Amino acid sequence: MKEKNPNFFFELQLEEDQSIKLAFWADARSRAAFEYFGDVISFDTTYNTNRYNLVCGSFVGVNHHGQSTFLGCSLMKNEEIESFKWLFQSWLRCMGGNAPKRFLTDQCASMKRALEACMPTTVHRWCIWHIMKKIPSKLNRYKGHADIEQEMSQVVWNSHSKDSFDRNWNDFLLNFGLADNKWLSDLYEDRHIWVPIYLDHHFWAGMRSTQRSESMHSFFNKYITRNSSLIQFVKQYDNCLGSREQAERELDAADFHTLIPCATKSCIEAQFQDAYTHAKFREVQAQFRGKANCITRLKNSALGYGKKYTWNRSC
User: Fold this and answer.
1) Among candidate residues 26, 61, 17, the one with its CA nearest the CA of residue 40
2) Do 31 and 115 share a structural domain?
3) Range of 110's domain?
4) Which of 75-84, 233-242, 280-289, 292-301 has the highest mean pLDDT?
5) Could you tell me which residue ranges the MULE transposase domain spans (predicted)?
6) Do 172 and 206 reside in the same domain of the chain?
7) N or C: which end of the chain has fewer CB atoms below 10 A?
C-alpha cells in the first residue's frame, strides 16, 4: 500500500512470536479528510475480525453531506490502557499532531484514561445510547425496575440545567432506594462525559452515540467475512473507502449541477442555499419552513439588559 500511495500511513507493534499486537493505518484520503472533517471523531471497537481474534477499531468523522467518513482503522489484541495510548498516539502522529476538539466513544475506563493522557484538551463524550441500554441488566434486581428505567430516562433527557439534573438525580435515587448502587454512583461521578446537559453546548456534528462507527462496521461486512485473511482485510478496507469516496463524489456533482429552491423569501435562507450542500441545506430549510408564518414582536426592552422577543404563529 505504501508503494502505491506515499501518503499511506501505518504503524505496527508485534508480539515476540511476530504476531500482530497492535496495528494502525490510514490512507491519503483519510488523512486529507481529517483536515476538513476532524473536529468531531467517533471511535468504536465493537467489530471483531474473528479469525485472528483481533478487535477492529475505526475512527469516523462526518463530512459536508452529513455522511460518515473513515479517518483511520486499527487492529488490537487487547483493550488495555497502554494499547489505547499507543493507538491514539499513532493516530495523532498520522494526523500531524492535531487533536480533535471532540471525541465520542463507548463507555470504557481504559479509553477514558488513555484519552486523558493523549488528548488532554479534547472534550470526551461517552455514547449515551450504550449507557441507557445497560439500565435493564444493571437494575433489574430492584422491584419496579421498569419504573426505575423510565424515571432515569426522564432525569437524563429532561433536566434543563446542571443544577436541575443534580436535584432530579438525587430525588430519583432517594425515591427508589438506589443511593448505594455503585453503577449509578459511578455514572454520577462521570456525568460530565455522558449527560446531555453537560455536553450539548459543544458542537458534536449531530452525534450523541457511536452508532456512526457501528454503521461503518456494518458497511465493512459487505466486503469482509469472518474467514478473510489480514491481507484481504486491508485490501477490502481500501475497496470500502473507494466506495464511500465515490458516493461523496456523486453528491458533490449533484450539488454543483442542481439547486434546491428556497421555501421562503428570506435572504438568510438564500445565503444558506448558496453556501451549504443539499443535505445540510435541507436541514436548515426545514427550520425556515417552521418559522415561515411566525411574526416577531418586541415583548419588552430595558436599557442595558437587552431585548426580549416573542414568536407568534399567524394562521
Assistant:
1) 61
2) yes
3) 9-127+194-249
4) 75-84
5) 40-134
6) no
7) C
Query: Does pLDDT of 304 surpass 60?
Result: no
| Mean pLDDT to the nearest integer, 2-8 | 72
Residue 300 has pLDDT above 90, yes or no: no
Name the residue with cell 453556501.
275
CA dihedral of residues 73, 78, 79, 85 (deg, nearest 10):
-70
Q: Please compute the mean of the pLDDT values over residues 13-20 and round it to a whole number.
A: 89
Q: Which residue has the higher pLDDT, 3 or 303?
A: 3
One domain for residues 77 and 159: no
Position 116: which residue type? E
Pairwise CA distance, residues 142 & 120, whole Å: 38
In a domain, 255, yes or no: no
